[in-house]
């Protein structure tokens, strides 16, 4: 049965690598896939999904105005397609996530979305929030903080090497811009820490 999947993580957890490997597994068995990525992210080139370990694949791009149900329907009309893969799923709109859900239910094709859960301020991306609400299955792709604990947050670093606490939600960047941290060290980075209580004086 076709399902809507959401694979989420922080930055630099290997989401694109896992997506490309999963697509390769389908193709290795003679099944075609349809790859989609956000047009706003051009780090690997326009219409390309690339990973930090050097593998990449051509993909169709989507913008906020695109009807993804129609894109998938048209792709199905062009020939067999066993699965749809969506990279940078945090950039989907709420409407587009519903369009993907319709494609799963009505066209009966599995859709696997890969993206960030929260932004650098700890807020859910609209696309990720809707995927968390609608996905049939959700899987966390884990990476670690510098302390060794699981990283669940991402900090956006300024030119001075300090974490930024305000700005536009979308700013494309890689290791030079973003750092994945556990919640404790993210709070420290953005200055959200309780002041140390003064030590009580010893009785005379």
TrEMBL record:
It comes from the Bacteria. Its EC number is 2.7.1.21. Belongs to the thymidine kinase family. One of its GO terms (molecular function) is thymidine kinase activity. It catalyses: thymidine + ATP = dTMP + ADP + H(+). Keywords: ATP-binding, Cytoplasm, DNA synthesis, Kinase, Metal-binding, Nucleotide-binding, Transferase, Zinc. ATP binds at residues 9-16, 87-90. Homotetramer. One of its GO terms (biological process) is DNA biosynthetic process. The keyword Nucleotidyltransferase does not apply. PROSITE patterns: TK_CELLULAR_TYPE. It is found in: Cytoplasm. Its main location: cytoplasm. This is Thymidine kinase. Gene3D superfamilies: 3.30.60.20, P-loop containing nucleotide triphosphate hydrolases (3.40.50.300). Zn(2+) binds at residues 145, 147, 182, 185. The gene is tdk. HAMAP family: Thymidine_kinase (MF_00124). It comes from Aliiruegeria lutimaris. InterPro entries: P-loop_NTPase, Thymidine_kinase, Thymidine_kinase_CS. It is an enzyme of class 2 (transferase). The active site is at residue 88.
């Amino acid at each position: 049965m076709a399902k809507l999947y959401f694979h989420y993580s922080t930055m630099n957890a290997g989401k694109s690598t896992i997506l490309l490997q999963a697509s390769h597994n389908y193709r290795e068995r003679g099944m075609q896939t349809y790859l989609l990525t956000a047009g706003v992210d051009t780090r690997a080139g326009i219409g390309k999904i690339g990973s930090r370990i050097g593998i990449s694949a051509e993909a169709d791009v989507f913008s906020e105005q695109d009807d993804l149900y129609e894109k998938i329907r048209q792709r199905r009309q062009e020939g067999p397609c066993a699965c749809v893969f969506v990279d940078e799923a945090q950039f989907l709109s709420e409407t587009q996530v519903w369009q993907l859900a319709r494609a799963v239910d009505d066209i009966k094709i599995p859709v696997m979305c890969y993206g960030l859960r929260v932004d650098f301020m700890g807020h859910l991306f609209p696309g990720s929030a809707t995927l968390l609400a609608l996905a049939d299955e959700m899987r966390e792709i884990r990476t670690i903080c510098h302390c060794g604990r699981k990283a669940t947050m991402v900090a956006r670093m300024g030119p001075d090497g300090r974490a930024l606490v305000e700005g536009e939600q979308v700013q494309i960047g890689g290791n030079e811009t973003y750092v994945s941290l556990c919640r404790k060290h993210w709070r420290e980075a953005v200055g959200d820490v309780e002041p140390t209580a003064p030590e009580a004086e010893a009785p005379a």
